[in-house]
Specification:
Elements (H helix, E strand, L loop, with lengths): L1 H28 L6 H4 L7 H11 L5 H13 L13 H36 L4 H15 L2 H15 L18 H38 L3 H8 L4 H23 L1 H14 L5 H10 L3 H29 L1 H8 L1
């Protein structure tokens, strides 16, 4: 198990370095520089002043030198200073990370809590009306763009029906509310973002759960359990589901990148001050330190999710770590 864990940790760091190198390179290939926002639109700024700004930000150095300096700062847990407002990047991220993590955790809970029962019931009742309806739901879920769904939900529940707020994660007067009123206010604000974030995962995950359950319930030991006179509930939920969950755990971990990437869409549409919106604003402003800081932390969260999924899978299925040890 230790060698398996060491191999996964090695892949963790290699992936992290690879993502940072690619992001750093692609970011600098984009046209324009952070200094353009301060100089291009200001006719009073001279070429010398622009060059001084480039030197101040270190943009006059070759890319390998800039990357090496950035890595040196990151090792010391310093993500640098934002080019836009001069605020520490780590502070900006820490202010916005909690809401993004909360939304993604709620999305994962919603996906697992709803998609798994749908998949299990569809697998145990193949060809039923419920199974056919779930199949249609899967196709709709895969075909629906996230940004379009977010806008439609905003128009329907926020503008037409006026049931839910359409921006932010809390009201402006939340400071004067009691704890129960705050919880209710947060719930109303987060219903649409969490639903939009989880919708695509609900469709795909329910299909994965159905496929795994359908495979497991055809195994010989399931027929043996039924032949012994066990109830269908015990056969399905005690024997079949336990074994079907092994690959589902891995798939759930692999869904983390999609959720984090999707946060850029719904946080921008719903004006939620999270990491997704911060990343979008930083890209538009060519704020290199903030872009790299958000990328690194987003990558770490993604890789940690995958690492936990791998460890859980190896713990549940010893043959995985045995193959790795050979």
């Amino acid at each position: 198990m230790l060698s398996f864990l060491g191999y996964r940790l090695f892949r963790f760091f290699i992936s992290l370095v690879g993502v940072t190198v690619l992001t750093f390179g692609i970011m600098h290939l984009a046209p324009g520089e952070p200094t353009d926002l301060q100089t291009t639109m200001n006719p009073r700024v001279s070429a010398q002043a622009k060059e001084n700004l480039r030197k101040l930000y270190g943009l006059d150095q070759p890319l390998p030198v800039q990357y090496a300096r950035w890595v040196k700062r990151v090792v010391a847990m310093d993500f640098g200073t934002s080019f836009v407002d001069g605020q520490k990047v780590a502070q900006k991220i820490m202010e916005r990370m909690p809401i993004t993590i909360v939304i993604n955790l709620l999305s994962l809970i919603l996906i697992f809590g709803i998609a798994l029962p749908i998949g299990v019931y569809s697998a145990t009742h193949p060809g039923s009306a419920f199974d056919k309806t779930a199949t249609v739901f899967v196709f709709v879920g895969f075909a629906t763009p996230g940004f379009w769904l977010a806008l439609m939900m905003m128009i329907l529940f926020g503008v037409v029906l006026e049931w839910l707020p359409i921006s932010g994660y809390q009201s402006l007067d939340v400071g004067g509310m009691s704890l129960s009123e705050r919880l209710w206010d947060w719930t109303n604000h987060l219903l649409l973002p969490v639903f939009v974030s989880a919708f695509g995962g609900l469709a795909g995950f329910s299909r994965y759960a159905r496929a795994e359950m359908a495979e497991v319930i055809r195994q010989d030991y399931i027929r043996t359990a039924r032949a012994k006179g066990l109830s269908e509930t015990a056969v399905v939920y005690k024997h079949a589901l336990r074994n079907a969950l092994i690959p589902i755990i891995t798939i759930l971990g692999l869904s983390v990148p999609g959720l984090i990437g999707g946060s850029v869409i719904f946080e921008t549409i719903y004006a939620i001050q999270g990491m997704g919106l911060l990343f979008y604003q930083s890209v538009m402003a060519r704020d290199y330190p903030t872009i790299m800081g958000v990328t690194v932390l987003g990558t770490i969260l993604t890789l940690v999710g995958n690492l936990l999924a791998d460890i859980s899978y190896a713990y549940a299925n010893p043959t995985v770590r045995l193959r790795r040890n050979r």
